[in-house]
Each structure stands twice: as C-alpha cells, then as structure tokens.
Write a structure and sequence with these properties.
- InterPro entries: 6-blade_b-propeller_TolB-like, NHL_repeat.
- It holds the Pfam family NHL.
- This protein has no helices and 20 strands.
- By secondary structure, it is an all-beta fold.
- A four-stranded antiparallel sheet has the order 1-2-3-4, with no helix packed on it. Strands 5-6-7-8 form a four-stranded antiparallel sheet, with no helix packed on it.
C-alpha cells in the first residue's frame, strides 16, 4: 500500500476495514476475521479519495461506499461490482468530508467554501446545513475549511471538524448555529489539553456522547467528555 493512507472506516455491522489509499487512487478492503497483508480493491482510479463513508445499514444489500473526491470536487457513490462511481449532488469544491444519515441524506464538507452541504435523494436538491458560503470565520454560524463529519444516527445531530478554527462543532439539523464541543473557544491553535491544532477527523460515541478527535498538527488523538473544557490524549502526542 502506498504511504499516502488517508482515511480508515470500520462499519458498525461488519468486521471489515475500509481504507482510503490516496497514493494508489483506490479504496481497499481488509477482513479482520482473516488478518493478512493483502486486501481487496473495492474502488479504483479515484484521484485523491480524501474521506470515505461506508453505508451498511441495509441487511439485504452489500455496503455502499461514498467517497469525498478532493481534486475532482465531488462525492461519488460506489456499489459492489461497479466499474465507476456515480456523482451525488452538485459540485463539492475541495471536498474533504462525507457522511450519510439514516434517511440516506448525504452530508459533504466543501472546504474551500467553508460550508457543509446536505443532498437529499428524495428531492435531488442540495442545501447548506453549516457555515456560510465563501465566508470564512470563527463565529458560531461560520466555519473555516471544514473537514470530517460525524452524524449521530439516533438524533440527527452532526459534528464537524472545523479544522482552521481548531475546534469541533455540534449542530442540529434545523439550525446553522453551532456549539463548540472540543477545542478552544477562540480560533487559535494550541498544544495544551484545552486546545486543538487543525483537527481533521471526528468520531462520537452515540451512547456516552464522548467526542474523539484526530488532532492532526499535534500528532495525537484526543478524547473530550460532554461539557468538558479540556480533553485527554489517548494516542500519540509524543
């Protein structure tokens, strides 16, 4: 595998690891039941697969892979056996985050335009659900180069790694006004336990609401408890 490994996904219902192998322009699958050095290519010839989301909620069908294609400015949907992806929604410029809710709405981070979009498969329309178009800022209604998205499937609340504001934002599906749940209340990066520096990944325990953050420039993974003013390092940070 090329050294430019970009993103890992372990779906809820399978014991399979999906890897965005950016340097080799593909998505690889590895079975955790049969660990080995070899994987299976599920998606190929996708230039810079920045983030991926694997939808395995339907027990009667094979998992569907959604890819945020950074260079191609789009989201692609790949079903098993496909030889090419299908574009979802409109252009997603510098697409850097992807997630799907239980109604199959697709959320995508449009990094260069400082906003998160939601595409509806029922209406084939796209709306803004976080940030303001081409309006970088650090207020509760603004974002600055958003990256990963995590959706709480039970509530519809979603979380955004607001990378250049060095924070994680939480939003409801009916409001553009976000709450900071990890990182500094200012937009400044930091190395202390109350700060983040260019966070690019976020995952949430939907039962405990604990937030886990890929704190990129600090080379660590941080855990933030609900309503905490600081996190603790659970990996890296050396």
């Amino acid at each position: 595998m090329n050294s430019a490994l970009q993103w890992l996904v372990l779906p809820r219902k399978s014991n399979t690891l999906y890897v965005a192998d950016l340097g080799n322009t593909r998505v690889q699958i590895f079975s955790l039941n049969q660990p080995s050095t070899g994987g299976t290519t599920a998606v190929f010839k996708v230039v810079e697969p920045n983030k991926i989301y694997v939808d395995d909620d339907d027990d009667n069908t094979e998992p569907t892979i959604y890819i945020a294609v950074f260079v191609g400015n789009r989201v692609e949907k790949w079903t098993k056996g496909a030889t090419h992806g299908v574009q979802i929604g409109d252009e997603c410029r510098s697409c850097s985050g992807i997630s799907v809710d239980r109604e199959k709405n697709v959320y995508m981070s449009e990094s260069d335009r400082h906003r998160v979009l939601k595409w509806s498969p029922r209406t084939n329309t796209t709306i803004i659900v976080a940030g303001k178009t081409d309006d970088r800022g650090s207020s509760s209604e603004q974002l600055s180069n958003p990256e990963a998205i995590y959706i709480d499937q039970s509530s519809g609340i979603f979380y955004v790694a607001d990378s250049h504001n060095n924070r994680i934002q939480k939003l409801t599906k009916d409001s553009l006004d976000a709450v900071t749940v990890a990182g500094s209340k200012t937009d400044s990066p930091g190395t202390d336990v109350g700060s983040l520096a260019d966070p690019t990944g976020v995952w949430v325990d939907e039962e405990t609401k604990v937030v886990y953050v890929a704190d990129t420039l600090n080379n660590r993974v941080e855990r933030w408890l609900p309503d905490a003013s600081k996190g603790d390092t659970i990996a890296g940070g050396f």
